């Protein structure tokens, strides 16, 4: 039985596919084996595993150096959260086994080289995460400054109106969500922005709709009636102006502003519809009818 057990142990450690799985198996053997020669066999396997563990640390160090400037990021994770998740995965691969090796093995003189490698690689990975967190904290402040921008801007070349929403705000919100999920404490300023996510998205969508409606309604104006509508167009521009001059994304009265603009758009559209109806049905159709009226019947043989 002892011989068979020895063979079974040797067979399981001929090919080591996972150090953590092998360590779990060794702990089970250690709990049931009492004879000295079998215990010594198990202890020798710990030494082999620790040597393989040192090779794995080298591989992880090489992998880190290869991808540190462009980490492979899990799908659907943004850059910062994805990079930190990658570094934490690498650290788990070296920290998991280290916590399971017997303390007596780690303290041996022959093990010091691997312990030193572990400490060096672990420090490097912690530094990597720290730098990404610092960089993101700096980006938070930059992105937050975008909330102080006005709601709408006019393009200097084509004079067209555009929603002035910084896309970095949405990136900041997504990063904050993902970082919070992996247990990282996000800055207070990021938490404040995160709490207002729905509001910012709603205002962004509403303003895009308003500007599309503005373009649609203005394009309905006939060239020959544009001069008649100049005062009304100016009135609508006056209603839109607060969004270009005073209102920012943190303002408290954006809802009132949007309501005011919607009323102005509805009023202008109804006016344009009425004018176009008068032009088409009362003037142009009558002119067409008159143009077809025969005032003098000329002889056919004249």
Which helices and strands occur, and which strands form pairs?
Blueprint: H1 2-12, H2 19-32, H3 36-67, H4 79-98, H5 103-106, H6 112-145, E1 152-154, E2 161-163, H7 167-181, H8 188-195, H9 197-218, H10 226-245, H11 254-291
Antiparallel strand pairs: 1-2
Number of separate helices: 11
Taking pLDDT < 50 over at least 5 consecutive residues as the criterion, the unreliable ranges are none
Helical amount among residues, as a percent range?
A: over 70%
Mean pLDDT: 83
Give the overall shape.
elongated
Structural category is mainly alpha
Largest sheet: 2 strands, antiparallel
Total beta strands: 2
User: Largest beta sheet: what is the strand line-up?
Assistant: 1-2
Write up this protein.
The longest helix has 38 residues, at 254-291. By secondary structure, the chain is mainly alpha-helical. Helix 4 (79-98) packs antiparallel against helix 6 (112-145). Strand 1 (152-154) and strand 2 (161-163) form a beta hairpin. It has helices spanning 2-12, 19-32, 36-67, 79-98, 103-106, 112-145, 167-181, 188-195, 197-218, 226-245, 254-291, and strands at residues 152-154, 161-163. It has 2 domains: 2-147; 150-283. A two-stranded antiparallel ribbon has the order 1-2. It starts with a helix and ends in an 11-residue tail after the last helix. The mean pLDDT is 83. The protein is elongated.
């Amino acid at each position: 039985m002892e011989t068979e057990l020895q063979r079974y142990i040797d067979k399981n450690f001929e090919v080591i596919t996972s150090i953590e799985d092998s360590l779990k198996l060794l702990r089970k053997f250690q709990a049931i084996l009492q004879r000295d020669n079998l215990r010594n066999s198990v202890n020798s396997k710990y030494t082999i595993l620790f040597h393989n563990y040192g090779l794995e640390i080298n591989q992880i160090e090489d992998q880190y150096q290869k991808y540190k400037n462009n980490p492979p990021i899990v799908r659907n994770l943004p850059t910062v959260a994805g990079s930190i998740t990658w570094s934490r995965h690498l650290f788990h691969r070296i920290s998991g086994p280290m916590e399971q090796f017997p303390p007596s093995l780690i303290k041996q003189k022959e093990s010091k080289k691997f312990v030193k490698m572990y400490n060096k690689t672990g420090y490097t990975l912690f530094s990597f995460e720290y730098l990404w967190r610092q960089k993101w904290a700096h980006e938070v402040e930059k992105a937050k400054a975008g909330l102080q921008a006005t709601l709408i801007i006019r393009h200097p070349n084509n004079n067209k109106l555009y929603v002035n929403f910084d896309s970095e705000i949405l990136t900041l919100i997504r990063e904050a969500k993902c970082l919070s999920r992996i247990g990282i404490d996000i800055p207070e300023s990021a938490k404040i922005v995160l709490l207002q996510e729905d509001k910012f998205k709603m205002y962004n969508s509403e303003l895009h709709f308003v500007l599309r409606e503005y373009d649609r309604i203005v394009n309905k104006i006939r060239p020959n009636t544009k001069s008649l509508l100049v005062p009304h167009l100016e009135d609508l521009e006056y209603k839109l102006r607060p969004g270009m001059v005073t209102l920012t994304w943190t303002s408290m009265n954006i809802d009132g502003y949007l309501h005011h603009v919607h009323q102005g758009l509805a009023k202008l559209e109804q006016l344009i519809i009425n004018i176009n109806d008068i032009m088409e049905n009362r003037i142009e159709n009558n002119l067409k009818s008159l143009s077809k009226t025969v005032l003098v019947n000329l002889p056919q043989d004249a």
